[in-house]
């Protein structure tokens, strides 16, 4: 699995979890402040698309996750 794929998996998971915790109609509702976390993840994805800089990518590189899939 590559860094780009893991970033998409983490971002999608964080967005779904924070929506489940932040939307009042959800049975898992905790607080609407969880929607701020959704916005944070979305903003990080947007800036990653423009700058190719992502804190999670740095962490995954240090853990030895490959940048590209081996041929």
Cα distance, first to last residue? 13 Å
Q: Mind summarizing the main beta sheet?
A: none
Based on DSSP secondary structure assignment, what is the total number of beta strands?
A: 0
Helix content: 55-70%
Overall pLDDT score: 94
Q: What is the count of DSSP helices, taking H or I runs of 4+ residues? A: 3
Quick take:
The protein has 71 residues and is mostly helical. The protein contains 3 helices and no strands.
What would your notes on this structure say?
- The chain is an all-alpha fold.
- Helix content is 65%, strand content 0%.
- The protein contains 3 helices and no strands.
- α1 runs antiparallel to α2.
- It is elongated, with a radius of gyration of 14 Å.
- It starts with a helix and ends in a 9-residue tail after the last helix.
- The model has no long low-confidence stretch (mean pLDDT 94).
Comma- or semicolon-separated keywords:
71 residues, mainly alpha
Secondary-structure map:
Blueprint: H1 3-22, H2 34-51, H3 55-62
